[in-house]
Amino acid sequence: MTEFLASALAPYYMQIKFLHLVFAAMWLFSTSVAFRFFLFPIFLEWQKDPESIDKARLRNWAMERFDDGAILEHVAFPILLITGPLMMLAGGWSAEQGWFAMKMVMVVLVFLPIEILDYYLAHFTLNKERLRLAGDAEGYENAVHFHWWFLVVSSPIVMTTIPYTIYLVVVKPF
Question: What are the tens digits of pLDDT across the range 63-113?
């Protein structure tokens, strides 16, 4: 069955790769730019004066827009999880190739756990807009703080591991 799929997909390798790269770029840039150039400076200003109602409102507005912007990222990631294995089959890759094994380690140990928590924070129980509309001020504040620390910890990891993963795929150093 695997051989059949590999031979059926092989002629479409470049199209699959194109889709994979487009959605990888969408995944990387949809929130990393927003975090670095919008959310991060707003949070720094709020932290200087956490009692300021105006700074808190701006912080909350930015966090809710960030959750909305994450929709692009959260559409792109599942498409990567589909096109990646298709490319693996079409390209004939396996864990015997060191660069590919390392890429899979990055996906399983770094990207999947971060994305699972990110989906939870942006769209499910800790969705800030939903908490605000429900009138749960304490839950809202806790969600904002938890999401902020998640972003502070995960963003540098993501911003270094994604380029490293791209390096592995392009250069295939081992």
Answer: 999 988 888 999 999 999 999 999 999 998 888 999 999 999 999 999 999
CA distance linking residue 112 with residue 168, whole number of Å: 18
Neighbours of 35 (CB within 10 A): 20
- Are 36 and 163 in contact, with CB atoms under 8 Å apart? no
**pTM across the whole model:** 0.85
pLDDT in tens, 104-119: 999 999 999 999 999 9
Cα-based angle 23, 29, 34 (whole degrees, multiple of 5): 140
Residue that is written with structure tokens 């490293």 in the block: 164
- Alpha-carbon span 122 to 120, nearest angstrom: 6
| pLDDT for residue 161 | 92
**Spatial separation of the C-alpha atoms in residues 102 and 131, rounded to whole Å:** 39
